[in-house]
Every structure is written in structure tokens, then in C-alpha cells.
Design brief:
Peroxisomal Thiolase, Chain A, domain 1, four-stranded mixed sheet, 155 residues
């Protein structure tokens, strides 16, 4: 069951993510870590809130002709511990590639910062892992939605 004991804590935090064309970043001398490759949104029954990534990920990978095995790192939003376990098992994600620095229960889950926090964590880890190419960020959204974003390391 889902309780306060297995959910992410209430966290204060802030995050900023700058998105711009590569050409403009080059003109301004702004370094970049990621290349945004795509995004998918999917839905499920509202009572199943938290498992939307199970439906968004296959849609995202299909659009980009990729498989689970092609992804080097996964950042799944961890609103609840059981939700991440369910998504991991249903998608068949390898543990050694999933939330490698901890998830939202250990790092934090500030309201309104999910996508930016997960993307920043992914960017830093892909930069550290010179052999890694692709990373996916996922999140559940209230009302039964799920979202997934595909990023490629810029190194």
C-alpha cells in the first residue's frame, strides 16, 4: 500500500533548465550537456495514478526506433516507492540503469520541479558516463497521465 512512509518527502527546492537551439547556444558560447530527442504523453485510469510511464515509455521509444536496451540511464520520478517498482517491472528496466544516484525519496521531490530536477540529474550522470548515449526521464502526472522524455548526451 501507499503511505507517507514509502512516499517522497515534502521538499523545498528550485531548478532551472535552459532550452535553446544548438546554433544559438554556440553563438552565445553556452555549453550544453543534452540534446532533446523527443517526448511522449500517455494516460491510464485516474485510479492508477503513478503508473503512466508504463504507457508513455513504449510510445516514446517507438517514435524514436529505440528499445529499452538502447537506453543507458533512466530517471523515473519516485513519488511513491511502489510506483517505481511497478514501472520498473512492467517495463523491464535494469536496476543498474535506474535512478543510479537515488530517486525522489532520497534526493527530494519539490512541487513543480519534477521534470527539471530529473533532467538535471540525468544530464550530470550522462556527462560522467562517457560511454552513455541515451537517457530517459519519466514522470507520473495527477489524473492518470504519464510522460517520458528522451535525451542524448552531447559529449
Amino acid at each position: 500500500s501507499v503511505t507517507a512512509g514509502n512516499s517522497s518527502q515534502l521538499s523545498d527546492g528550485a531548478s532551472a533548465t535552459l532550452v535553446m537551439l544548438r546554433e544559438r547556444a554556440d553563438q552565445l558560447g553556452i555549453p550544453y550537456k543534452l540534446i532533446f530527442r523527443g517526448f511522449a504523453i500517455a494516460g491510464c485510469e485516474p485510479e492508477e495514478m503513478g503508473v503512466g510511464p508504463v504507457f508513455a515509455v513504449p510510445k516514446l521509444l517507438g517514435r524514436n526506433n529505440l528499445s529499452i536496451e538502447d537506453i543507458d540511464l533512466w530517471e523515473l520520478n519516485e513519488a511513491f516507492a511502489v510506483q517505481v517498482i511497478y514501472c520498473r517491472d512492467r517495463l523491464g528496466l535494469p536496476m543498474e540503469k535506474l535512478n543510479v544516484n537515488g530517486g525522489s525519496i532520497s534526493i527530494g521531490h519539490p512541487f513543480g520541479v519534477t521534470g527539471s530536477r530529473l533532467t538535471g540529474t540525468l544530464a550530470n550522470e550522462l556527462a560522467r558516463s562517457s560511454g552513455s548515449r541515451f537517457g530517459v526521464v519519466t514522470m507520473c502526472v495527477g489524473g492518470g497521465q504519464g510522460a517520458a522524455g528522451l535525451f542524448e548526451a552531447a559529449h
